[in-house]
Amino acid sequence: MKKIVNVATPAVCAVALVLSVVAFNKTNAATAPAPIVTSAPAPAGQPVDLTYAAEKALPSVVYIKSVQNSKIQTVEYSDPFEEFFSNPFGGFFGQGQGQGNNGRRQRQVQTPKRAAAGSGVIISADGYIVTNNHVVDGADELTVSLNEGSKEYSARVIGADRTTDLALIKIDGKNLPAIQIANSDDVKVGEWVLAVGNPLGLNNTVTAGIISAKARTLGANGVESFIQTDAAINQGNSGGALVNTRGELVGINAMLASPTGSNIGYGFAIPTAIMNKVVDDLKQYGNVQRAMIGIQGSDVKSYVDAKKDEGKEIDLGTMEGIYVAKVVEDGAAEAAGLKEGDVITTIDGKKVKQFGELQGILAKKRPGDKVTITYLRDKKSRTATLTLKNEQGNTKVVKNADTDVLGADFRPVTEAQKKQLEISYGLEVIKVNGGKMKDAGVPKGFIIQRVNDIPMKSFDDLQNAVKEANNSKDQMLVIRGIFPTGKKGGFVVYLQNE
Questions:
Q1: Catalytic residue, candidates 20, 119, 165, 299
Q2: Nearest in space to 264 (alpha carbons), one of 230, 215, 237, 236
Q3: 3-state SS class at 33
Q4: Is 140 a catalytic residue?
Q5: 31, 231, 424, 441: which has the highest count of C-beta atoms within 10 A?
Q6: What confidence tens digit (pLDDT) does each residue in 207-234 have?
């Protein structure tokens, strides 16, 4: 049975759906113009010459080394002997065993330095590079090596999007060999492609295959409309290029499906049609402006098959389209009059047979864009125009928020505070300058332990919580913690402007 698992670190490389990053210690967009290729496609039955595509693409694909530095972390552990001797009869007389600290103790551990490797694609001559989010996620240092190791650069992250598994990084370079970008919507099943990257430590590797399918969904990312290829993709190919026979980029290699963790013929790439929009958003806004249609649903065929398994016969008037299982309150679909049970068949005149096709179309849109849909209700065709909304239910630009909006300074709690307050982690508010924290009444000295039910063990945890909340519909932080006196308390911080 095929398993579906994501892999981003060397410790879990033998899995099924493998994000192709290889451990370094295991050995591992403005586009530049390209010359016009005048040669006609090879006649049917004739071999395809892929040398031109390889020569064009190889200089644009880079090797990325990601390093997570060693860190000191405080962890809790249980001492069963201490728990027993602190209250040996608790279990017999209904008292909670291990009163006080419940047998829990704390110690500091030093995490090892970790290194991993992946690939990236130069998309502009001034140093912008596209890769996968999972290649750079959590990295303290990023090093980019050009083809054949001719030059090495330090890189910084411009922006990353976990939902599409894409990231944009930048190196300080000039006249770099940027790849030509093609429209992935134009590729066809059966078309020859090359996968270019650095798999298993074998730098500057090219593999060939065909496009096996389009608009695949695997349940690995939030937004998926993958190009499937049988060109060999392995760990380390993540972020590399999928190119056509002209050496033009059509996708960013992202993962493979395998019961063993190595290639068995199923690789998946993020189409350039999605990549271009994500890159533009990261450059312009700092985060992705995601357009929502406001429904939950599935492919019609999947819905009908599921009902058959329940012994129910369903006739929707079609076996192709998107079944609307739920209409989200205050969403674009509700405003346009869609209801549960409707079947969306086209968007802007383009047929949508699979959910991946719907996601692929929406991934290229922004809040405020209008789309015309055709849908069936009681087997009768209708049309509607929808104004797409963001995750917050409006059409405004969602700006990239960070902890600056809180107007406060923070530091991890000291060992003395941990001992005094009997806590193991937290962030102390050491100064309130204004901003959202002041508006919510959060005082200096308050120790934040959880934000939106996520433990706050480091400043990075708080930054991530602010970013996630800013992209949510409510745009608020539910903060729980403890005052210096030991009294527990909480606050609600609203990020949006009234």
A1: 165
A2: 230
A3: coil
A4: no
A5: 231
A6: 999 999 999 888 777 788 999 999 999 8
